[in-house]
Amino acid sequence: MQRRDTLFSTLRVAVVLCVVCSAAVSVAAVLLRPMQETNKTLDRQRNILDATGLALGEFGRPASKLTQDEVATLYSWISEKLVDLQTGEYSTEYDIDKYDPKAAAKKIDQSVEVGATDFSIGKLRREKIAKVYFVKRPNSERIQQVVLPVYGQGLWSTLYGYLALKSDLETVQGLTFYEHAETPGLGGEVDNANWKAQWVGRELYGPDGEPKAEVFKGTAPTENPYAVDGLSGATITSRGVTNLIRYWASDDGYGVFLGKLKQELTSENKTAGAN
């Protein structure tokens, strides 16, 4: 009778178990990938809608509480384009459905050095081409909002989010963050709905055209059109949010694009008025 407690038998059982488990994990990963991609897309769309405030306006609920069908309905109002941040022109260099700005920022040929700037985002490089989002109501070509992906360094992590601007491209419609690792109850209060609501209507630029929006140190004065309340006990996170908003609003970020878009919208409005 063959012994079953030999080294060979033990190794054979271990190998068989490893092969079976590896196969099961691989099959599960393949089968679940479509669902994971769908959930990833749904989460991105909800965060963009959260910045725009459309969900509250149309359904009376935040985007995170919408059903998948409701998200699809509202997101049909949103179109996407790629923009060359240096020239401010639209880009067709990449397939917009496959392009990943976060991955591009890590590739030498698809990114540029951040260089010297008044507003540190804690990164050495940023993507050359960014993805922007336009909000238009059904059956209308008029741009209601522009949503800009933004990111920058907080205390413990990089904060990734979306900044929505009203059609004047100077007034904030909303700000939301979808990825960060800031301290819960402190820097993590960037997720607090009451704090995010303070951004609605804040002015992005000062009279000189320079970015002025900020997270104030303490309670923001009511007469200050640029500031929201500081995050209690989170000075570095607060400073990081100020820096990332000002950086992406400047010519180092979306400034050139926003300037060209503003001219384009002004020209269209004059043409429409003349007709």
What do you see in this structure?
- This protein is α+β, with helices and mostly antiparallel strands and 275 residues long.
- Helix content is 38%, strand content 19%.
- The chain has a 6-stranded antiparallel beta sheet with strand order 2-1-5-6-7-8. Strands 3-4 form a two-stranded antiparallel sheet. It has a two-stranded parallel sheet with strand order 9-10.
- Strand 1 and strand 2 form a beta hairpin.
- The protein is globular, with a radius of gyration of 23 Å.
- The relative contact order is 0.11.
Could you give the topology of this structure?
Elements: H1 7-52, H2 54-59, H3 68-75, E1 78-84, E2 90-91, H4 101-104, E3 111-113, E4 125-127, E5 129-135, E6 145-153, E7 158-166, E8 172-179, H5 193-197, E9 214-215, E10 227-228, H6 235-249, H7 255-274
Parallel strand pairs: 9-10
Antiparallel strand pairs: 1-2, 1-5, 3-4, 5-6, 6-7, 7-8
Helix pairs in contact: 1-3
Give a quick rundown of the structure.
Helices cover 38% and strands 19% of the residues.
Which spans have pLDDT < 50 for at least 5 consecutive residues? none
Task: Based on Cα principal axes, name the global outline.
Answer: globular
Q: What count of helical segments does DSSP give? A: 7
What is the arithmetic mean of pLDDT? Answer: 90
Report strand order across the widest sheet: 2-1-5-6-7-8
Portion in strands: 15-25%
Relative helix content: 25-40%
Provide the succession of SSEs.
HHHEEHEEEEEEHEEHH
The total of beta strands comes to 10
How many whole angstroms does the radius of gyration measure? 23 Å
Characterize the biggest β-sheet: 6 strands, antiparallel
**Structural class designation:** alpha+beta
